[in-house]
Amino acid sequence: MNKTYDDSNWREEMKAYTSSKKDLEMLENGPKSLAQSWYMSTLYQKWKKIKGYKDPEPPDCSSSLKEWEESIKKYEDMPPEAFGPGSPLSNQAGDGRR
Predict the structure, then answer these.
(1) Is the pLDDT of residue 41 over 80?
(2) pLDDT over threshold 70, residue 94
(3) Looking at the 3D structure of the chain, how many domains does it have?
(4) What is the C-alpha separation between 7 and 47, in angstroms, rounded?
(5) Which of 23, 39, 51, 75 has the most CB atoms lying inside 10 A of its own CB?
(6) Closest Cα to residue 47, out of 21, 10, 2?
(7) pLDDT band, residue 93 (cuts 50/70/90)
């Protein structure tokens, strides 16, 4: 992901925004377990929010069944031989019978 900000020193910067002993220890020593890594992630998200950094919106990769149906219409009138032997439109012997 392309970031428009420098987060290489975020742990040091975050120390100025917390007085929690747990947070300070985590920022200093890093996570020692999976649960602590999740907690560290929340600290990172808080730091980004404090600094006003936002991740870009993900691209819209949605589609619909209607779009898919339209895209396959070009294959409806093609003979089974066009798909080659062993295709789902021909029998396994490859003689074109359905």
Answers:
(1) yes
(2) no
(3) 2
(4) 9
(5) 23
(6) 10
(7) low
Do 71 and 41 belong to one domain? Answer: no
Using CA of residue 9, residue 14, residue 20, residue 23, what is the dihedral sign?
negative
The pLDDT tens digits of the residues spanning 49-90 come to 999 998 888 888 887 888 888 888 888 777 777 777 666 655
Range of the domain at 29: 10-51
Same domain, 67 and 95: yes
Q: What secondary structure letter does DSSP report for 81?
A: G
Examine the domain organization and report whether 44 and 16 are in the same domain: yes
80 touches 87 (CB < 8 A): yes
Q: What is the DSSP letter of 88?
A: T
Please report whether residue 81 resides in a domain: yes
Angstrom CA distances, 1 to 4, 58, 62, 88, stand at 10, 11, 20, 39
pTM: 0.59
| pLDDT classification of 92: cutoffs 50, 70, 90 | low
Q: Quick check: is 5 in a domain?
A: no
